[in-house]
Amino acid sequence: MSTAPGSNAREHGGTDAGPPVVWDFSTNANACGPAPQALARVRAAAHGRYPDPAYTELRAALARWHGVEPERIVVAASASEAIMRLSAWCARQGWRRVWLPRHGYGEYRHAAHVWGLCTVDEPAQAHLAWLCEPSSPLGQDESPETVMQVLARPCPVVVADLAYAPLRLQGRAVLGDGARRHLWQLWSPNKALGLTGVRAAYLVAPAHVAQDALAALQALAPSWPLGADGVALLHAWVQPDVQRWLQATLPTLAQWRQALVDGLRHRGWQVLDSVAPFVCARPPRQPEVGRLRVAGVKLRDATSFGLPGWWRLSAQPPQALEALWQALDEDVRPHVAPHRPRREGDVPAAEVSR
Question: What is the rounded CA–CA span in Å between residue 52 and residue 46?
Fold first, then answer.
């Protein structure tokens, strides 16, 4: 299924109801993961009791990490939940106009549809604007022109989705620390840590947001949006040993991404530049997805991102690449019907045509 404007249908990478996925190029999780130190903390979490419903220690740890007051930390069940909650909060303020990236995460549009927000063409017209750097599916930085447009006349809520910022492989972000301080920051570390099965995220509110507004946003969440495993993941995120592991994976991911790009271009695929460990590519002929899935390989169709004919693929280890090349090369071979020996009574095709 594809996500169309005004539709409730959503498409994601990762596990689905289809055949088992052995070699998953459809998800943007760090393929070097899971981070062993973070996984150990998740496994050791106190699953037998409720977390603190106010997440006092967790919010203090995240606040120290970002150099802000704990009141500015808003924990969320996931990035998708945070997107939905921010959209709901804006709708309750009477703010009805949202600006979306041309190619971006489908949850932005879905949340806008659910809460009756209308999309606008220019950031200056919006009450809510979404930025994402590096972006998905393209893995590219926001253009300086877009950032200037958004910041020149700040709308009430501008959100920088930073899910892939920790996985940047090259260059410097257009949205630097100075710009981020004036925006809402959305962090979902499970991708960077290779633990996407643990759902946890948080927002860092800009300093100018009033306390009653933050309280209203907090009140829109159910009790305990994070379970014990999510709390453990976010605590692990700010630990020095986990950050060292993450930094050590980036050169490997860069090598794997380059091997992916080289192999795709060798097979005639058009590949767009990316600063992240995933790329968008368009094949010379569309692959037979069913055949790839039978081979255990899954790619991410980028149609729902507004890129029909393109696919998003993530950097994966060498054995996964070998499986991908074998599946793609097999897919383009002519499919010849199996030879069946002629039996007595068979009529030659030449005679049938007469």
Answer: 11
In the three-class reduction of DSSP (H, G, I as helix; E, B as strand; rest coil), residue 327 is classed as: helix
150's CB contacts (< 8 A; 6+ apart) are 99, 123, 129, 131, 158
Q: Are 28 and 164 in contact (CB under 8 A)?
A: yes
Question: What is the DSSP annotation of 242-301?
Answer: HHHHHHHHHHHHHHHHHHHHHHHHHTT-EE---SSSEEEEE-SS---HHHHHHTTEE-EE
What confidence tens digit (pLDDT) does each residue in 178-221 have?
888 889 999 999 999 999 999 999 999 998 899 999 999 999 99
Residue partners of 317: CB distance under 8 A and separation at least 6: 31, 256
CA pair distance 331, 337, nearest whole angstrom: 15
169 closest CA partner among 139, 132, 143, 194: 139
Single out the residue of 190, 142, 146, 136 nearest to residue 166, CA to CA: 190
The position carrying tokens 């590519």 is 281
Radius of gyration of the chain (CA): 23
Our CA dihedral for 187, 140, 183, 303, rounded to 10 degrees, sits at -70
Kindly report the pTM of this predicted structure: 0.88
Per residue, the 3-state secondary structure of 9-68, as one string, reads CCCCCCCCCCCCCCEECCCCCCCCCCCHHHHHHHHCCCCCCCCCCCCHHHHHHHHHHHCC
* 188 within 8 A of 204, measured Cβ to Cβ: no
- The answer to whether 74 touches 218, Cβ cutoff 8 Å, is yes
Half-sphere exposure in the Cβ direction for 290 (13 Å, CA): 0
Residue 216: strand, helix, or coil: helix
- pLDDT 10s digits, 279-297: 999 999 999 988 999 899 9
